Every structure is written in C-alpha cells, then in structure tokens.
Amino acid sequence: MRRFLINQAKGLVDHSRRQHHHKSPSFLSPQPRPLASSPPALSRFFSSTSEMSASDSTSSLPVTLDSINPKVLKCEYAVRGEIVNIAQKLQEDLKTNKDAYPFDEIIYCNIGNPQSLGQLPIKFFREVLALCDHASLLDESETHGLFSTDSIDRAWRILDHIPGRATGAYSHSQGIKGLRDVIAAGIEARDGFPADPNDIFLTDGASPAVHMMMQLLLSSEKDGILCPIPQYPLYSASIALHGGSLVPYYLDEATGWGLEISDLKKQLEEARSKGISVRALVVINPGNPTGQVLAEENQRDIVNFCKQEGLVLLADEVYQENVYVPDKKFHSFKKVARSLGYGEKDISLVSFQSVSKGYYGECGKRGGYMEVTGFTSDVREQIYKMASVNLCSNISGQILASLVMSPPKPGDDSYDSYMAERDGILSSMAKRAKTLEDALNSLEGVTCNRAEGAMYLFPRINLPQKAIEAAEAEKTAPDAFYCKRLLNATGVVVVPGSGFGQVPGTWHFRCTILPQEDKIPAIVNRLTDFHKSFMDEFRN
Amino acid sequence: MRRFLINQAKGLVDHSRRQHHHKSPSFLSPQPRPLASSPPALSRFFSSTSEMSASDSTSSLPVTLDSINPKVLKCEYAVRGEIVNIAQKLQEDLKTNKDAYPFDEIIYCNIGNPQSLGQLPIKFFREVLALCDHASLLDESETHGLFSTDSIDRAWRILDHIPGRATGAYSHSQGIKGLRDVIAAGIEARDGFPADPNDIFLTDGASPAVHMMMQLLLSSEKDGILCPIPQYPLYSASIALHGGSLVPYYLDEATGWGLEISDLKKQLEEARSKGISVRALVVINPGNPTGQVLAEENQRDIVNFCKQEGLVLLADEVYQENVYVPDKKFHSFKKVARSLGYGEKDISLVSFQSVSKGYYGECGKRGGYMEVTGFTSDVREQIYKMASVNLCSNISGQILASLVMSPPKPGDDSYDSYMAERDGILSSMAKRAKTLEDALNSLEGVTCNRAEGAMYLFPRINLPQKAIEAAEAEKTAPDAFYCKRLLNATGVVVVPGSGFGQVPGTWHFRCTILPQEDKIPAIVNRLTDFHKSFMDEFRN
After folding, report:
1. Where is this region: Disordered (chains A, B) (predicted)?
2. Model's pTM, two decimal places?
3. Is residue A457 part of a domain?
4. What is the CATH number of the domain that holds B134?
5. Tell me, what's the ipTM?
6. Are residues A379 and A485 in the same domain?
C-alpha cells in the first residue's frame, strides 16, 4: 500500500485533491499548480483547500494567485484552517442568534492552547515577568507585600544578566547569555550530561527555530526530510515553504503509534532511489497528534539510525513535561545519544523546546529555544547569521524559557504553591485524557489509542460507506465531513486527521484534552449523542 | 557607472569578492557558490564574508557548507556581522586586560538599539505591560499606590479584549482583534483616512512581516524587488533567503539622499530587459541608513510610479516618530495614496511599523505590524495562512504596538509625564544627531548629510589611495578597514557602508545617534583624534 502511494504520486495527487477539495458553489479561484512529488496521503497538506473567495476578475491589482510564490499556495496548516474559520463564523453568529443552535458556545478543541480554555498561568512565572517588565517596582516597598520573595530575587538575578537592566534592548541574537546559562544548567540537570549555552538559540516559540533548520537544510525539492505520519503540520508547512520534499514514515496505530526502524529504512531508501537527498529525521516525542511517548530502546534505535545514515535528528521535545502514564518517561534524545557514547563530533542533533506546552501553557508569550549540537563551526556560524537577521527573540519569552528550565526549588518561597499548581494541572490533564479516551473508545466504530503524553487524542473513526459517499457528494474529505457535522451539532471544534496525515483510507480527528474538567461531561455527552445520530443516519 | 555594475555582474562579483573578502590566515572553508546576478556594489550583501573557522576536515558530520541551502550562504546582515564579532571579543578581553587598550569601554553605535545605550522605556507602557503580565495585581489595593490610574484603566481595557483575560493564550493569527481596532483608530487619527483592523497583521517586530511579504512575492530569481541603495540590510538578506533578485535604485547623496523617479524607471526597465519580473518597490521613510525624510511631492511621484508599473509599494515606516527637522514631516504612504484618490482597488500597499524605534525603543519586546491594503481576498487569505503557520505574535508586543498607536492623551493621569519623557527623548535625539553630524563634517575628507529623521548618520569618507591599498593588502574592504581601525583605536563600533550598499568607489559607515548625551563629547573627541591619525598615516 505504501509503495503504491509513493509510486503513483503524481496522478493520485491530482485525483485525490479533486476528491478531497472542498469547493463552495461559487469557487472560482484558479487551481494551485500541480505538485510533483506528494503522495496522496499527504495531498491534504499541500493543496490549497482553504475557503477561497472569488478573485475579483475586474481587479487591476498586480498580485494574483498565479503570480505569488507557489510554495505559499502549496503549504497548509489545518490547525487554524478551514474548520476553524467555520467555527469562528458560527461563534460570531451565536452572539445574536443563540436560538438557532443546539449549543450555546463553541468549544475549541483544535489547538494546544491551554490558557484559552481556562488553565491559569504559573503565578511565580508571571510575578517574575511583571517585575522584569517594570523593574522600578523593585525599588518600591509595597512590592514586597505584593510579590513572593523568590520572584523578587529571581527578577533581580535576571536583570543582572541584562546589560544596563535594559529589558527593552535587542539582546545577543542567540538570547541573553545569562539566561542561556540557566537553560543549559537546566538541561544538564534534566539529562545528566553537560549542555553548552553557546548551543542554545532562543526563539519566539519553537516554530521559528524549526523554520530556521528547514531553511538551512533544504536547497530544493531534491532535499527531503523524514517526517512522521501523522505529524504536527508545522513540519509539512515549513518543508513546503522552504521548497523541500516531505518523506513520510508511518507510525503504527496498531502498536500505539510505534515507530519501526524498518519502516524508516524503507522510506529512506525509496526516497533515495528517487534521487532525493534525505537530510534529516523529525521525531516528535511525546507525539503530536498521536500522544505516544517513545520507549528508550526505540530512541536508541533512532539515534543509531541517524548516525548510520548521516541524518540530522530534529527532535521536537516541546511536550517533555506532558507524560501521563507511569510506564513511560521522557528521555531527551541528547541524553540517549550521549548515553550511547555519541558526542559532538558524532551526531547532529537539534532539540526544540517551547514555553507553550507542559504545565505552563504560555503560548502567547512566544518563548522557546533550539539546542543545536554536532555541527561544524562554519555551519554554526551560518545558523547564527540566520538568527541575527531577525535580531533576537522577545525578551519576555526568553525569560520564561529560563524559568521553565529552572523553576522554584525546594526551600524557595514559591515552591509549595508552584508544585501545587503544576501537579494540579498535570494530574488534571492525565485525568481528562483518560476520560475523553474512554468516551471515544465507547463510540461505535471508533478506536482511540491512549494519550501517553502531549495534549491530544487522535481517534480513528471507521466511517460507513454511506458517510464517505455523502462526503464525496459535498466534495469534502470524509473526516472533514464528520468534523463539520460534529461542529454544527455540538459546537466542538476538532481537526480532521487529513490535516496531520494518515494512512490512506483511514480517518481520524485530533481533539485536545484541554477543556476544563467541568466541561468534559457535557462534551462527552454531546459527542456521544452526535455520534449515535451520525451512525444512525449513515450506518450501512 | 551604474549600467557597468549590472552588466559586468558575474565577473566583477567574483573579482570584488576576492578583493573584499576578509581572510584570516587560517581560512580554509570552501568558497561559497558563485553568485549569478549580484552587481559588485551589492556583492557585499551576498558573499559569505563573516569570519569562518576552518571546517573540521576530519569531521564525519553530515552537514557542510557545500550541502546547506546556498541562499543561506548568500545572505548577509552586516548590522550584526563581522565588526560586531570583533567588538565583542574586544569587550570580553577588556574585562581582564584593561591596560592593553586606549579606551575603557566598547560603545556600540552599530545598531538602532536605544535602550542598550541608556534610553529608558516609557513608564506608562511598562506599567501597562506589567499589569497585563500579572493581572491579579489589579485585584490588590496596594496596586493603586504603585501604578498610575490610567495604566490600570488601560490594562483593564486591554484584558477585556482578550477572551478569558488569557494573556498566555495564542491569539487570532493577525493579533487580538480589540488591539487591532485600537491600532486602526490610531492610523486613522494619524492619517485622516480610515484603516481597517482586518488589514492589520501583528508580528514579532517588523522583520517577520517583511519576510512574509518577500516569501509571498518571490517565486525565483526571476522575481525582483526594487530596493534603495543604501538600504537596511534586512531587505537584501530577506530577498536572498527567499531566492529573489534585488534590483537596486540609487539614492542621490548629493541631494540629501533624494529618490529620483527617473532612476527608479531606469532600474526597473533594465531589470525587465533582463527578464526579471519586478514585483515591488521598497521605500524606507524616514530612511535607514540615510536618515532622509521624503518630501510629500516625492512620495506622490512614488505612489503614481507604483500604480503605473503595477508594483506593490512596501513602505518601511518604522521611524515615523523620528523626525528632527522643522521643514520635514512624516506622511504615511497610505495617506499620500488616498489623498491622490487611490483606494483599495487601485494600489497594493504594505506599511510596516515597529515598537523598536520612535521614542519608545522597545526593540527587545518584538512588537510590530504590517497594514496590508489593496490585495484581492484570495491573496489576502494566503497571507493569513502564512501568519497562521506560526500561530500568532507575542502578546506583550501586540499590547505595546497598541500603546504606541494610542498613547496617553491630554487629561490622562500619565499624559504630562509621558509627554515629558517623549519630548525629552526626541529633542535629545535631534541634538545628538546635529552634534555628531557637525563633528563628522569637521573631519578631513568626510562629508555627512544631515539626519532629518531615523537614528543614524551615514557619512562618506574619502579614503586616500594609500589607505585603499592597505585595505587591499589585508583583503578587507576599505570602509571595513577604516571601521576596524576606528574600533581598535576608540572602542566605537560602526558598520561599514558596504553592509548597506553604496555607489561603487565610494565609502561610508553607519553610526547611530544613540549614545547618551554625556558620552557624545568623548566619542567626538576620540573619533576626531583617530581620524587625524588615520589621515596622517595614509594621506597622499
């Protein structure tokens, strides 16, 4: 089946794009240019399927869909794609038209955005940010009544790292050195292996760091990046934008989304036989959307594979704090590599971390970093140069990244409340993950692997043939058809599996575990009722 | 001379790159790939001239300069380039080796980074940021003793725009709607023409917005962007990274860096005759590095030119608050276009604004936006899609952008102190600009146009032939040679003119006006003494 996908690429891409393309009746925009090398399973990433208003055919404006960069047309990002646009329109309409809907609010389960669904920020982190933002507070006596002593202390220490305490200045393009020292120490404490602050590049969230590496590694469509299917679509979008080729490797749903080295090898060899120079392997651990936490042995196999094949290992580790099951543990790929005896000269490894996930959920602050090891100094200088073009990442995000990697310790004033907040959030996430997983597994024709980590469930829906035909009649992918029906019936927003990639002929959706606990019963009820009606309507 | 540049491109690029290439004795890295189309005047943007350590020839690591994306090799960003690396090493050495140097500190005049040189942030802005960072402060009675009433009020209003007051959540990918409303109102108040919040895309500083537009407009080297020479090298770097061609138009030093439509036309036609599809015109107003403020009539000519030639007008307006001369005034290009009767359907216009400049200087906060008008809705959706891949810009930066476009008004609690801070900073900038301009003009063989706006002086140095030969012997560009000598003698860091582009055979450097007033006399003295010695050494 998989060889079929890749060999039939061109014809099938066009065919499935026509099949899966949602066209509104007045759709008049020109077709995106044909895609040379995307297997059908991935066509959803690369076709321009978002709702398009008609081009103004009388327009005299110089820029048209035909004249813009085709890589922009090609890239898709379903997490904020079509279904979210529909949901936003519904939400707007709900304000004035409550009675027209069987629900009174839209619940956004499409995006890993915890604080938008009621999760509170960690108090100590926000205290430190506020003090750094308005440092003259530190000179006021009232401040001691308003802020914890350790947040005041930490703010002073951070400000001491910043020349002139100028939090409004551009910093070093890799980020403030003192904060990188703290982050490196945090990495070392986590892994038991040293980390070098000069290997750290602080970025506005992890996404710009991913873009930087894609831009570095991809010269043309002849350069490929091995990506898990299903994957978080930043990778497919970024590869498309930078003109490379996505080489898929399929996670195995039957074995809890296991990663088989034999499949990696096979995909690698097929790509090479087509003249693609495969540059890197992306691994998301814990997984998004799939939620698995890799077994350490599996990680060792992956590291060895990259070493043998000369691949850069791009390790998306942003969910490292989100592990919910006692039989799994997060191990950084750097720790695994160093434990195998691979050092700086042996393996090229980039680890991405972010302040958006974990128990802190500070998505809007745009903090993150990549730790870059195992590159020659001349290539490192090129990475630095790329970072320097945008000067530096935002200072608040840099500060948050250092707090995440060096939170309150036993004995600190804030330690107890910090631990209570942290444990409360993580245990609640584990609980909500289990509740939703069980609810999904109870639905007819639905199977859902457990979420060992991350923030998502990725259930598989066995859609009856009637439903698939109804979807085709609406020129919609079957999973998108299901998700739109779900949205219209319940107000719950999830993302069709085709936004992430899936084995062709299988259908999934990604649902976050993030609505607050008090909303979960209602979501489960509405989902269950909807699914039953849907199956009643379309059951064979 | 200019036709010569472009026609002799390939041979001269190689020749001048060898001439201008700074090679340390142990330089062993492979040559960057030859560049097809960069005129010699621009070769400095596009050659990889930063200091390179030797490749580890025994390395088994897979990524090498030969295998990375050649566009990355090609791009340069001199503002944080070679001379800054040298300065940082000197600064490090100064800590332990003070006596080895004729100065006791490095003064960074290479970058528009006001707060790194002692400028303080606007108090009201930081109060609001701190309150939004740690909103529970708003529930405490002590807060009223620590914060101005209007900052508390503004924080409440901002938080009301954010669903759930969740400042840690990802926002709408264009930025928080309520903040865009405020910004649009600010634009309207400034220009007297309406602005639509849906045209605003809030970004992490202006740079990511520039990248987005370059990525949209450039499909290949056959797509060109008209850029001023000299220019702020984000433009050349971004064009290189996105694989397009920079089409230069020369600002006229003799007429205060005037922009001649006849030169624009000529460069456009030459580019077109070489098969380049010119997509846009970049105008930086007030200018960087050149500091001129365009006359309104000149702006009208530019708008008409873009309309007639079907070019997108990319207006870098980040220095709109930095105008120092009574005979010039900032007019936004949108205002000029609308005043000419051009509406949404007539002209494609993008205006970039940032919180990094003006009197606020909040570089590290990474706040900014682009206002995008005159594109069809299908193209607009593609721009939205690009913005959505990175989710949203940082919330603090978004908040700051709204404060910058809607600062305290008469009657507000903070108004008087805000105006005092603002006027103090701007009048001091005007004063420092004049002092430094006069000092530069007093130097033998140096002429310096006045800084009508922005934050820079861009003096021309007439280097004696002996100096040029000494530079060549060191395989350094003559202006870089001068700047390095200046750095080593005085500790003052400026950027060689070749980092910005200049008419071949002319030499300049860019120096900011940002060191605090009390440092200016020492800088002037050291510069004057250095220049005299330099001329004594190299005078013909």
Report:
1. 11-40
2. 0.90
3. yes
4. 1.10.287.1970
5. 0.90
6. no
